[in-house]
Design brief:
With about 120 residues, the protein is of the alpha+beta class. The chain is built from 3 helices and 4 strands. It starts with a helix and ends with a strand.
């Protein structure tokens, strides 16, 4: 009997042993036990929790068209929390607001801090 025939008989024996054996029931100790978790809501009453600072609102980006006191039309972008805040920032920069539109979520330069955003003033074409 050759090596190949011995190997085939061995594989048939292993296959029959694996596939024809009856499955065994798992032991009851190996089943999943639900962990005991206690949620303490008393933390909401602590002064440390009550004194937490709120998150700042994330500014949105708006495109604007404005005119200067010399009647020069300017187009640009400004970051503000709301449209009203953007208009106020432009008026504080001594610009007459013609139009303000939200340009969408996100910024062109994600590495520029929000606090460094000022009204962009570029002459209109």
């Amino acid at each position: 009997m050759g090596i190949t025939a011995s190997l085939v008989l061995f594989l048939i024996f292993i296959s029959l042993w694996v596939f024809l054996s009856k499955p065994t029931q798992p032991k009851s100790s190996s089943t999943f036990n639900k962990p005991k978790v206690n949620v303490n809501l008393a933390i909401l009453d602590l002064t440390q929790f009550k004194n937490l600072e709120h998150f700042e609102l994330i500014p949105l980006q708006f495109s604007y068209i404005a005119t200067t006191s010399k009647k020069v039309t300017i187009k640009g972008f400004i970051s503000a929390v709301s449209k009203e805040e953007a208009i106020k920032m432009l008026q504080d920069a001594k610009l007459q607001v013609v139009e303000v539109k939200e340009t969408g979520v996100g910024r062109d330069n994600p590495f520029l801090p929000y606090s460094a955003t000022t009204p962009a003033t570029t002459p209109a074409k």
